[in-house]
TrEMBL record, chains A, B:
Residues 24-78 form the HTH lacI-type domain. Signal peptide: none annotated. Keywords: DNA-binding, Transcription, Transcription regulation. InterPro entries: HTH_LacI (IPR000843), LacI/GalR-like_sensor (IPR046335), Lambda_DNA-bd_dom_sf (IPR010982), Peripla_BP_I (IPR028082). The keyword Nucleotide-binding does not apply. This is LacI family DNA-binding transcriptional regulator. The keyword DNA-binding applies. PANTHER family: HTH-TYPE TRANSCRIPTIONAL REGULATOR GNTR (PTHR30146:SF2), LACI-RELATED TRANSCRIPTIONAL REPRESSOR (PTHR30146). GO terms for molecular function: DNA binding. Residues 1-28 are annotated as: Disordered.
Length: 354, 354
DNA sequence: TTGTAAGCGTTATCAA
DNA sequence: TTGATAACGCTTACAA
């Protein structure tokens, strides 16, 4: 990396205008290697198509010059940026942070970059960001959930690139989908509690975005088969989810729904808050109150008592989304465009009664 | 937005080559408004410098055409991308997720975009990503911590754009710095425990990145003044931090350091794990063991007993970093290039003895 | 397999 | 204040 010594090859110094960035360009590499610029371009994109002799000379020149390709010039010339636009509703929600981690890991050594947008759970903001992203002609797009606005959906349908809806599955994919059923998760957690003998099972929910709504719907469905339902058992808030919100909602629930003997929570933060509040009030878990969370964050298994939860494959969702995009970009679009990664009910001490 | 109807103005259809993306360009806007392209460009960048009459015609044309500026072309022509490169060590660590949130919020309506890189706590990966970022000629760079490799530091010093080191402060800023002292945090938490009467205070640490090391150093320093130190009190692991790791480290600590009566934890996840383990083993908190965490995540105040922690201004660090960058980009570089945002010891039940 | 010429859509330069 | 022209660094189209 003799950047200082000869970043500017002799034959180019004179030509270099004041506008130049001063960094070596493809042309610099080409002239140093004694080949045409297009050959260097090809050597970079598809080494197979360049003779091994030239390839070696080019590689040497690149190393000597410390050359780095200018992605803006590439994007401009090819009318296509090596960028995947990712729209997710929250950064601080651990669940989406793990999706993002899966996406990054899925990228591996590919040249693709992630352009990330935080919609703050707003469909309007999602559409606004999408328009910005589209201006860059991204290679692919990832959006969260399946409840896009009609106009957003139209934009995505005509985006001219692979689109993956993540975290949920449903009937009408825009293009591809990777996720799991939130309805089933809510239902299964509730059925499990009914099975172990709970009768007055509350539902605690915060934020209540579309996925939360479907978990709630699943909870209601579980009662239709077995239990006796009471609207007072449901306690929700549009406010963001947090551990303290879990404690707060539980206080509300227990005061308005007499005989409460279990709570199905919208997510793990709420569940942890419920556990703490039970500890504080001296309410025994699981003897008097059973608790179930959603997502199965790492802490659930360690809590005392350990907390039952629905394990969701969020990291895998990110990886799978990228895998499908890379396949589509490589020309072989996956046959299965709707991938349901499922979930797993992790039964722990908080719903285990002797 | 009559995109469908006349996205391609009549006078441009014939000229448009097959390479074109099909989207309206600056030239399309210009010809529709009856002005030169450069005038449209100016109207976009600095409306003040264009007469109000032309500005109106241009705005009308932009709306009619549904024009969106091509950032790649802009970056290529100006040799400068409206991108801020952000290098942080982890995505799933809640602390950095909040820094990122602060950064995003600090951006507000500015045209700046974030390009994010995950170093996975590796200095080599940091340098590799930095080289990639530098290829895009970013408007500014944000890096985590103050322990860059010498070569990384040199790259940053010659990057030719504002650079902010975040999450820590120290003596030799590359350019600017926003953070707080981890040494002081570790020291203050430990001194607090010594004050309330603990004598055998353990230190639990995971990951042990440079910031963790300095917290540990602060912990040691607290003993120098008051307590009697014993190397057996320190239990660390290079493995990532987690709640279960907290429980695990505590089991180790209590078995090797007889008489342990308090633990200062590297972060809140570990502290929560300690609390759960104490619950599990029937060890009373704070009567027999006092606990302190680090960062003061939201759950700490809700836990039962509530957990003492060092409140760190991570969201504010992100906002402040962007504020300093925007100021520098606007031409008035902050006078104070090292900003120490401080921290606050939050004393709670886990270190409150009657 | 390699090269030439002509863009890609914007902005810097210089002139009017 | 406005505009014509030439970059910016790369890739597509076409030719050899």
């Amino acid at each position: 990396m003799q950047l200082a010594g000869n970043a500017r090859p002799g034959d180019a110094v004179g030509n270099r205008s004041r506008r130049s960035s001063g960094r070596p360009t493809l042309a610099d590499v080409a002239s140093r290697a004694g080949v045409g610029t297009i050959t260097v371009s090809r050597a970079l994109r598809d080494p197979e198509r360049v003779s091994s002799e030239l390839r070696e000379r080019i590689d040497a020149a690149i190393t000597a010059l410390g050359y780095v390709l200018n992605p803006n010039a590439r994007a401009l010339a090819s009318a296509r940026a090596d960028v995947i636009g990712v729209l997710i509703p929250s950064l601080t929600n651990n669940v989406f942070a793990e999706v993002l981690r899966g996406i990054h890991d899925g990228l591996g050594d590919s040249a693709l970059q992630i352009q990330f947008g935080n919609t703050h759970y707003s469909a309007d903001e999602e559409e606004r960001l999408l328009r910005v992203f589209l201006g860059q002609r991204p290679s692919a797009l990832i959006v969260s959930g399946i409840d896009q606005l009609p106009a957003t959906r139209r934009l995505l349908e005509t985006a001219g690139c692979p689109v993956v809806q993540i975290m949920e599955t449903g009937p009408n994919p825009i293009d591809m989908m990777v996720g799991f059923s939130h309805f089933d998760g809510g239902q299964q957690a509730t059925e499990h509690m009914l099975q172990i003998g709970c009768r007055r099972i509350g539902f605690l929910g915060a934020r209540m975005d579309p996925r939360s709504q479907r978990r709630l719907a699943g909870y209601r469905a579980a009662f239709r088969a077995t239990g006796v339902f009471d609207e007072l058992l449901v306690t929700t808030t549009p406010s963001p989810s947090s551990v303290s919100m879990g404690a707060y909602l539980f206080r509300q629930a227990i005061s308005k729904a007499p005989g409460l003997d279990g709570v199905v929570c919208n997510n793990d933060d709420l569940a942890l808050g419920v556990l703490f509040e039970c500890n504080r009030q001296g309410i025994s878990v699981p003897d008097r109150i059973c608790i179930a969370g959603y997502n199965d964050l790492e802490m659930m298994a360690v809590a005392y008592p350990s907390l039952t939860s629905i394990r969701t494959p969020r990291y895998e969702v990110g990886r799978q989304a990228i895998a499908m995009i890379r396949a589509a970009l490589a020309g072989d679009r996956p046959e299965q465009v709707i991938v349901d990664l499922g979930f797993e009910l992790k039964v722990r001490e908080s719903t285990t009664r002797q």
